[in-house]
User: Fold this.
Amino acid sequence: MLVGRTRELDVLNASFRQMLEGKGSILFLTGEAGLGKTTLVHEWWKSVAPDSAIYAEAACSIPIGNVDVGRLEALQPWADIVAQLETHSEKDKKKFDLKKLIHDAAPSWAWAIPFVGDIAHAAVETTRLIKEQRGPTERNFTVGNQQQVFQQYVNLLTKIAMETPLVILLDDMHWADASSTNLLFYMSRQIASTRILILVTYRPDEAATASNGKPHPILKIKNEIARYETGKELAITRLTREAIHEFLERTFTGYDEDDVFEEWLFKISGGNSLFVTQFIKTLLEDGLVDGAGRFTGDYEFVKIPDSALAVVEERTARLDDATRELLSYATAEGEEFTSYVLEQLSEKKPMQLLKELHQAADIGVIVPKGTTRMFANHTTGIYGFSHALFHKALYDSLLAEQKEYLHRKCYDVLKDVWDRSAVEQERTITLASKLMTHAEKCGILEPAAEAALAAAQSAWHTYAEEETLEMIAHVKRLAAEPAFPEVHRSRILGDAWQLQSGVEYLHGRYEDALNAAGEAFEHYRNMQDDVKDPDNVKVKNAKCSRALLRRANSVRMRGMFDESLAEARKAYEYAKKTNVREVEAEVCTAFGNTYADSGAYDDALRYYTQSLEICESLHNAMGTSLALNNMGILYGLRGMQDAAMEYFTRSLRIREEAGDRYNIAMTLNNLGSTHNTLDHYEEALACHTRGLRIRESIGDRYGIASSTLNIGNVYASMKEYATALEWFRKGLAMWEGIENPSGIAISWINIGTALEHQGALPEAREALLRANEIAQTIKAKSYEAVIQCELGIISLDFTQQTDGAARTAHLQEAASQLEEGVATLRSIGYAKREVYEQKLEEVKKSLNSEI
Assistant:
């Protein structure tokens, strides 16, 4: 029942109407616990819900036993939205086919679709994709960073909204993980012209200290969204005196206005709706209010609760013993619980349990949330407490020994699910975080650490850095406990450090990646050998080799080629001990990369060839395609474009067979650039255009910007400079949109050279100088050198417009700029410097003739 919410309903209705007109937005509903934020949304949607629109909601996980699991469950609320959208999709395929949309537009979110198991329920390709995406792998081949994960989600919702309007509720965002909050902000910038309305509830008081005593990021995000005018806040106020009158009038048939009673209720409740509704029930049960809503007691002798929580505690204390015991058991699993787990905790028969849960729902303590396919393909009912305060009151009423017993029982149930779900690859980050919490609470350290590591791997699958690192910290903390089994300590710590090194490496923090990989190596080296189990020794050596490879790659990225080769040689020694040829192939690739970066192309080719031979012998398609691609790049650097074309084509064929769209687009980029070098302009445009379309479909904004610039390069090669400039400026806007300084600098270089060819020399120089400022900031020596050479060419062009002393001055300036640029390009082994060297010789001859 809604009373006193006319203002709030008007705002919701206005936002909904604007959304239907194609003006999407985010509406934050804020207020303290008990004001009815979620109830407001539910009742509002009942009143407006058209058949043409879809509503989905997800609640962020509240703490379990004072452990904040919600902040660990990377992107889980958004995944829950996907699961609900799948339910809508199954009901009405005419509106949209979610599985097909996932496959086409958001493959990195396939893990979020509840897996049905029966192949008849999904396309074969989509089912395969879902299976692959569920496994915690170190590399997600559909995306390269979290921004692409976010963009795919935006693409998905946008495509659905083209067919049907979407209203999404994200409840209790003050418990949300950082990645979910960041996705909300990312989405706010792109839904302004869509039929998407996102409603977000949170409690400002909780948000102020939700992140380990610090403000939750939702507060900053909300302010930023308001600043960009893509959303606004609707503060839910307390009930007014008039609203309380309306509530009594609508609750009690024949209610006569009682100013004293209403004023008393208003004063003691402060207008908190939960307080009012639950306290009225208490007064009724105590005979202090009759069936017509008349107060029949003595105000002086009524025990007045001091808060909404106190009211709820009184309400739960009045539950019958069986119901209170059952719901107390349920609190151990969390504010949202399952009939599957509760059945194990209570040891009740399914039909009796469902009957008692139905009775608890009738009195308003819990609410059913439908069913979902989860827990190793086991269908279970989902329930939630009608308010977080009911959960808190019941959980806090348990004795310490009872809590420990229930957490142990929860652990036993979830551990069984965990073990069985490994077979189906259905281990979710939610299951991992809950298993870790229950295991630690009952002192079972090793499974807790294993679950934390699995959760970290799942989080990194979507490049959720903060959640990954926090879970890794839990692994380290648990493994450091004296009671942790010594035999497994080194292995799990090594895995945690190795995963952390991958996080640091992807974000370009190569010194941190180097140190983390070093820690991983030391722990792996200390793993206990089991001479009776040769596989144990192989695993140990393989792990040591890969940790050293990460060190080799980290120092290579810092330009320390000798150190990189030294680490790679150590890795090779361990790889030989494993007799696992895949590891040897990885080592060969590391050698090849280092030699290629240092300009030793013959050595690089030798190692890439070895890697290719190993991968082909193992029928390792991904490794084979990578080796072929690397060899193609190397032949291109050596000016052997026909050979490069052959290797890129072979690599592309393998990646197409695997459906590896991220790397298909990358290979098409390489092929397009090679065609451009060979003056095959139509083929170059075809490759880059196809690559662009793929990158758009998977939300690869970095790749989209790169393909856009490459298309401009082809038009520049065709001397169609006006068209080239259009593409370069499109690319510049994209690089600026994702705040990528390297891409911005390259765009200005390309714009400058195109303007120079058009004869707009002052504008060309200005563009190059802007590029140079950025290049100096990011310390990109190759960019600075190319810019100096291009400025030299512009100075040379100016000589054609001047004579006498001015002409000589321009020649001298051109010579100085070209000499500086060419010298740097030679020092770093830049392959495509011949044109600048020829220009330098031309300038020198002109200067000599002038003299």
Notes: The two ends are 95 Å apart (CA to CA). The first strand starts at residue 25 and ends at 30.
